[in-house]
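So, could you explain this one?
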Amino acid sequence: MLKLLKNGLLFGLILGACAARAELPADYKIVLLTENFPPFNMAVDDKNFARDDGIDGISAEIVREMFKRAGIKYSLTLRFPWDRLYRLTLDKPNYGLFSTTFTAERQPLFKWVGPIAKTGWVLLAAPGNNLSVGSLKEAGQYKVGAYKNDAVSQHLESQGLAPINALRDQQNVQKLLKGQIDLWATTDPVGRYLAKQEGVSGLTTVLRFNDAELYLALNKDTPDEVVQRLQKALDELRAEGFVDEMTNSYL
């Protein structure tokens, strides 16, 4: 009798799990957006537009595996600029955006799955520049370049700074070299990776002012079931060592 009861409970749990997964329509799909943000997500051909297999990077590999394991369909497009992708994800149901830095200001705007990766925020100076800055407040006296609507730029603005925003973070490399900006506020290791692509090395880290985590941001109307399934898949991948393996393969 006890054995039958246990079997019945197990069968009920299986049916319950299947029913929960079946709540999504058969044609349900997330429209995933990303940008060139190496080494986390980038176009294989280095262009500003790519789809599906034409996109790689640490976060791209992890997100693909998350959706596969969660059994949720998706399309993946890399576009430009970030500002447009950010607003599309805010406005359109079933849209998702990565790699999105999680901040307290952004928390109520999206539903979140992560963290996918960890980064730091830095102020970089041109090679040979001996500029010394002890805080963001001190940095306010200089021309600081940043990336429009990026979390770094938003943070600077929240601290009372007025960054000179570019539509492409790569533009800040040449701005720095030409003296159009004194400091470049960017994400580490992304900034150095972008600089190397522009043939520039030897940038100096003047200040590291924040440690951050990268997430998948989903439109607020995304069903909770989708968020839960994706988070569960990511947690499993991390426990199995997949996240560390992907990270180490790119860095």
